Amino acid sequence: MVETRSMIKAKKLREYLKNDGKLTLRVCAYDALSAVLIQKAGFEVVGTTGYGISASLIGQPDIGLVGYAEMLERVRTIVNATDLPVDADIDTGYGNALNVYWTVKNFAKIGVAGVRLEDQVWPKRCGHMEGKSIISVDEMVNKIKAAVDAKNEENPELVIGARTDARSIEGFEGSLERAMAYAQAGADYVYVEAPQSLEEVKELVHKVSKPISFNIIPGGKTPLFDFDELVKIGVRYISIPMVCLYPATKAMMESLQALKERNFKKVIDLGVSWSEFNEIVGFGKWRELEKKYSK
């Protein structure tokens, strides 16, 4: 098989997962512009946030209202906007193991470097929300096997992440047992939603055969762990989901309020300038192409 650009990006993501002594941040985009900004800020991996995509795409919470086709299209625009590896949130795979197989094949075709599959019942909800339900271990193991088969057909380097939401339902022991089973089934990393202490994280790192991941979200259930402490106990990869959307939302609210108060100077001060924004979205490149093709 000829090595493609997608394979190269997936290999890079795999390298980050193996990088002892360094914590790689999976900084989450909710659209193409936020992906561009993440790259410009110097980060190494772009994640996608299901909640951020649901909020920005349909203005609704992350409770399973955005389906497979909508998510695939939004992630495609994110992949096209950045040179970085994109590790995509594929929710539950949108059905059973056959749906997971189809989902992974098609996300691989649009060039993602990794996908992350979760063990909630569909329709799912954000991991930090109450009222979640999870599928059996056996069903999730079969979904992971389907994901591995699909990626082997499309991009053998594609990273498969398996997420468990069992911590708030079955307790820590249940989430640990699931994490071990998911690693054994073929996941390249295991994402445990909302561990509650460094001791829990240490035990996960020690007992699970694949790298452990989780997210840190402002106001969420995961403690705001110190990054250096995480490195010391062997964590290599964590997700930061709302670092773009929450500040953007606040800035938009403040700007709109200022406009309502007829304070246009404050509106200007809250945003980037015309020229700055044109630079961010690459207008100069397109202007040069325009000149080239006008000769």
Commentary on this structure:
By secondary structure, the protein is of the alpha/beta class. 52% of the residues lie in helices and 12% in strands. The chain contains 13 helices and 8 strands. The protein has helices at 5-18, 32-40, 50-58, 68-81, 97-109, 137-154, 167-185, 198-207, 227-232, 245-260, 264-270, 274-280, 283-292; strands at 24-29, 45-48, 86-89, 114-118, 159-164, 189-192, 212-213, 237-240. It has an 8-stranded parallel beta sheet. Helix 2 packs parallel to helix 4 (68-81), helix 5 packs parallel to helix 6 (137-154) and helix 10 packs antiparallel against helix 11. The longest helix is centred in the middle third of the chain and has 19 residues, at 167-185. It is globular and about 55 Å long. The model has no long low-confidence stretch (mean pLDDT 96).
Q: Could you list the spans in which at least 5 consecutive residues all have pLDDT below 50?
A: none
Order of helices and strands: HEHEHHEHEHEHEHEHEHHHH
Helical stretch tally: 13
What is the average per-residue confidence, as pLDDT, rounded to a whole number? 96
Q: How many beta-strand runs? A: 8
**Helix percent band:** 40-55%
Which radius of gyration do the C-alpha atoms yield? 20 Å
Tell me the fraction of residues in β-strands, as a range.
5-15%
Characterize the biggest β-sheet: 8 strands, parallel
Sheet/helix structural class: alpha/beta
Keywords:
295 residues, alpha/beta, eight-stranded parallel β-sheet, 13 helices, 52% helix, globular
